[in-house]
Amino acid sequence: MTGLRYSTDGTGMALLTAVFTPFTESGRLDLDTVQKQADDLVAWGSAAAYVGGTAGEGASLVTEERMALVERWCEVAAGRLDVIVHVGHASITEARRLAAHAEAAGVRAISAVAPYFHRPDTVDALVDGCAAIADAAPTLPFTYYHIPSMTGVHLRASDVLLAAREKIPTFAGVKFAHNDMVDLQRCLQLAGEEHEVFVGVAKLVLAAWQWGARAAIGSVYNFAGPLFRRMLEHAAGGDLDRARESQLLAQQVIDAAARYGGELAGFKALGALSGVDCGRCRPPLVSPGPEQVAALHAEVTGLGFTERNR
User: Fold this and answer.
1) Residue 23 gets which letter from DSSP?
2) What's residue 1's pLDDT?
3) Are 105 and 70 in contact (CB under 8 A)?
4) Which of the four, 14, 139, 189, 210, has the lowest number of CB atoms within 10 Å?
C-alpha cells in the first residue's frame, strides 16, 4: 500500500485545499495566478493543493489544459506543498492518460471520481475502473473521490473502500464529499491506520474531527483556510464553544456564497477577499456580476468573517 498521510500539526486534522482554476477575462487558463495561489496556501499552512477537481472545474477543461495546469502547480509548489491531481473523467482511457502524465510531472498522488455519464452500477465495476486508472500511475497513491451529488454514483463509499483496498495496490483512501454521516463514520472506522478518509464537506469538518477524522479536502479553504485552522486549534485546545462558533460562521459564509450563483461561483467570488482573484467560472456556470460580488463581500464582512479569517 502506498500511503498518503499528513501531519496534523497538533490540531488533529490536516487541511488540503481543492484549488480553483484561474481564468483570464477571455476564459483562457491564467497560469500566472497559480504562483499567487500557492503562496497563499503556504502562508496559512495548507498541506496540499488538490488540482483539477470540482472546485478546479476539471470537467470543463480539455485534457491539454488539465496537463498544463498540473505542470504549473508542480513548478510553483515544489518543496513547499504537495500536489494531488484529480484525473477523473467520463472516459477511463482519458483518465489513464491524465494519471500517467501526473506521475511523469512529479505529483504526490492522484484521485478520481467515478465515470459520470455511463456510470458503474456495482461496486466491482467502479473499483475495476479505479484500478485501471491507478495502474496507469503505479508509483502514486490513489484516492477514490466520492461525490454522488455530481457523479450520480450512489454506491456506498465504505463498500468501495473495502473492495478497493483488496484490488488496488496503491489505494490510499477516500475523499468523502457527501452528507451521509453514517457512511462517513463507517469509512473512518474501516480506514484505520492504513488508509485515509479526507472529509470533503466543509460544514461537517468539526463533527468529523470529533469522530477522529485526520484530514479534509475542500474548496472553502481557498479563502477561509485561516478560519478553519483556528477552529481546529480551538477544538484541539478543548475550547469547543469557540470551535463551534467558527464552524457556524463558516456555514453562514457558505450559505451566503451559494445565493450568488451557487457555491462554486460564490466561493470563487470570495477568493478576492484573500487577495487571490481567480476570475469567473467557465460556462455553463454563471458567475455573479460586480454588484453581486460587492454585495456578497459586504454580507460576509457583516457576519464578521473578514476579521476572524486571519
Assistant:
1) B
2) 37
3) yes
4) 139
Domains (range + CATH), the chain: 14-219 (3.20.20.70), 226-310 (no CATH)
Q: What is the pLDDT of residues 109-163, one digit of tens each?
A: 999 999 999 999 999 999 999 999 999 999 999 999 999 999 999 999 999 999 9
**Residue 254: CB atoms within 10 Å:** 21
Distance in angstroms (rounded) separating the CA atoms of residues 107 and 264: 25
116 tagged catalytic: no
Is 144 a known active-site residue?
A: no
- Residues near 161 by beta carbon (within 8 Å), at least 6 away in sequence: 144, 173, 174, 187, 190, 191, 195
Q: Which residue has the cell 467502479?
A: 126
Q: Quote the pLDDT of residue 77.
A: 96
Residue type, 17: T
Which residues are paired to 69 by β-bridges?
A: none
Q: What confidence score (pLDDT) does residue 208 get? A: 95
- Candidate list 36, 50, 116, 175, residue with the active-site label: 175
Q: Nearest-5° angle of CA 31, CA 37, CA 99?
A: 65
Q: Which of 50, 145, 221, 260 is catalytic?
A: 145
Instruction: Count CA atoms closer than 13 A to 250's CA, side-chain side.
Output: 28
**H or E segment to which residue 172 belongs:** strand 171-176
- pTM higher than the cut 0.85: yes
